[in-house]
Amino acid sequence: MKISMVGTGYVGLVSGTCFSETGINVTCVDVDQEKIQRLNQGIVPIYEPGLETLIEKNVKKERLYFTTSLKESIVEAEAAFIAVGTPPDEDGSADLKYVLDVAREIGRHIDHYMVIVTKSTVPIGTAEKVKSAIQGEIDKRSAEVEFDVASNPEFLKEGDAVEDFLRPDRIVIGTESERAEEALRRLYKPFLLNQHPILFMDIPSAELTKYAANSMLATKISFINDIANLCEAVGADVNQVRMGIGSDSRIGYKFIYAGTGYGGSCFPKDVKALIKTSDEHNHSLELLKAVERVNERQKGLLFEKLKQHFHGALKGKKIALWGLSFKPNTDDMREAPSITIIEKLTKAGAKVTGYDPIAMQEAKRKLGNKIEYTNDQYEAIRDADALILVTEWSEFRVPQWDKMEKLMKNKLIFDGRNIYEPKDMEEWGWTYYGIGRPPVNVS
User: Fold this and answer.
1) 96-128 residue pLDDT tens
2) Mean of the pLDDT values across residues 199-224?
3) Helices (H), 83-141
4) Buried/exposed code over 138-147 (b: 16+ C-beta within 10 A; e: otherwise)
5) Is 28 a catalytic residue?
6) Which of 7, 217, 264, 301 is exposed most, by the fewest CB atoms within 10 A?
7) Kind and range of the H or E element at 53?
8) Domain limits of the chain?
9) Do 211-297 and 300-433 agree at the fold level?
10) How many CB atoms lie within 10 A of CB 378?
C-alpha cells in the first residue's frame, strides 16, 4: 500500500514515519525545500523521542521518502493525507489557506481513485471545502476522476507522539462512503491487532471530536488551576485536593496537575477555534471562554508572586528560568508560559537567564536576545536572586541543593509545577512558592 503525507510538521512527520513502520510505502511532501533536503540527510527538524531512530530505519528499508513534489507523491497512491498547518487567524478561527492549497494541487494532478484525508486539525465543514476545491480543479481539466474525502483527526501528545500513534487509545475516522471506509480500515489494520478501537462516524462528528477532546482537557487544566488559586487563599494544598478528587473514577488523576497554564500547538489554538466556530453558529461557549481567561491569568501567576515577594522592585534583579518549552520531552515553545513570564520580567527591568535541555535553539528563535542562554542548569542560577521552575524536565527533579545554595544570591524558588516538597524546602531553609499550596519561609 502506498500513501502520500502532505506536510512534514509535527503531525505529518510523526504520522508518515509511523505508517512506514508498519510496512506501508510513505512519501512525505513539503514545499520547504531546505527542510526536505535536511530530512533526506537524516536531520530531523523537531524533537520527539524515538522519531529520529524510526526515520533512519524506514528510510534505509526504502519505505519512507521525502520530496517537494506532491504530483510525484500521489502516483499510484491509495490515499493522501493533508497534514499542513492551520494557524489561527486574528479572530481565533483556523486559517485553511494551506489545506485548500494542497487540495487544489491534488485536484490538478489526481488521475485515479484516492481517498483524500484531512489529518490537520480543521473546523467543522472543512472536508466539504476540500472536496469542492479538488472537484473544481478536476472540472477545469474536463477530467473524470473519482475520489472520496475523509476526516482522520490526530490525538498525539508531544513527547509521547510515536507511542501514541503506534498504540493509540482510539482511531477516529469520518467518512461518507463504504469505499473510503474500507481503504482506511486496511490502512489502519496493523494498529488494530492489539484491540485498539477504530471509530467510524460521519465527517462533521469526526471534525468536532478533535476540538471537543482538546477543549475538555484544557478545561480540566484551567479548572484545577482555578482551584489551586482558591487553595492558596484558604490555606489548603492543591496536591492534597488533587488526590481527593482524582480518586473519583469519574474524574481521574490525568490533567488535574496545577501549574502555569497550558500551551503548545493544540490546546490554545483549538479552544480559540471552537469558540469561534460556536460564535459563528450563534451559540456562545461560555465555559470555554472562561477556560481561556483562566489560562491567560495563570501564565502570569508566577510573575505576580515574584513581584509581590520583591515588593515590586524587580529592576536589576537576576531571575533564572529552568525550562522553556511548554512541556517536557519536546522543544515546542508555541504558547509556552515561559514566554509570558519572560516578557513580564524584562518589561519590569529584570535580567533573565534561561536553560532548557532541548528547547534552547527554539527559544533563541522565539526570544532572540531578550534573555541570556546558558548550557547548564547551574550556570543559569549563578548569582540569581530567584529561580523559577517553569517546565518539569526530569533532570530538575532532584537538583544539587548544596551547589545551588552556593551559586544563588538568595535561597528563593518559585515552583511552577509543584515538583518540590514544601516540607523539604522549609527544613533546608529555602523560601518556597508553589502553585496552590502554602509558601514556606516567607518573612
Assistant:
1) 999 999 999 999 999 999 999 999 888 899 999
2) 95
3) 97-109, 126-140
4) beeeeeebeb
5) no
6) 217
7) helix 51-60
8) 2-201, 211-297, 300-433
9) no
10) 16
**Given pLDDT bands bounded at 50, 70 and 90, which one contains residue 215?**
very high
Q: Grid coordinates representing 125?
A: 465543514
Give the C-alpha separation, 360 to 207, whole Å. 34
**Given a cut of 90, is residue 4 above it in pLDDT?**
yes
CATH number of this structure's domain 2-201 = 3.40.50.720
> In this structure, how many other beta carbons lie within 10 angstroms of the beta carbon of residue 306?
23
| pTM, to two decimals | 0.88
Is the separation of the CB atoms in 167 and 196 below 8 Å?
yes
- Number of neighbours of residue 93 by Cβ within 10 angstroms: 17
Segment holding 55, helix H or strand E: helix 51-60
Distance CA 60, CA 43 (A): 14
* Greater pLDDT, 371 or 265: 371
Res 195: pLDDT = 72
Q: What is the DSSP letter of 88?
A: B
Q: Which residues pair with 234 in a beta bridge?
A: none
Q: How many helices (H) and strands (E) does the chain have?
A: 18, 14
300-433 has CATH 3.50.50.60 classification = no
DSSP letters along 354-409, please? EE-SS-HHHHHHHHTTSSEE-SSHHHHTTT-SEEEE-S--GGGSS--HHHHHHH-S
Phi and psi (nearest 5°) for 414?
-115, 105
Quote the CA–CA distance of 352 and 333 in Å, as a whole number.
17
Give the separation between CA 103 and CA 368, rounded to whole angstroms.
36
Q: Does the domain spanning 211-297 belong to CATH 1.10.238.10?
A: no
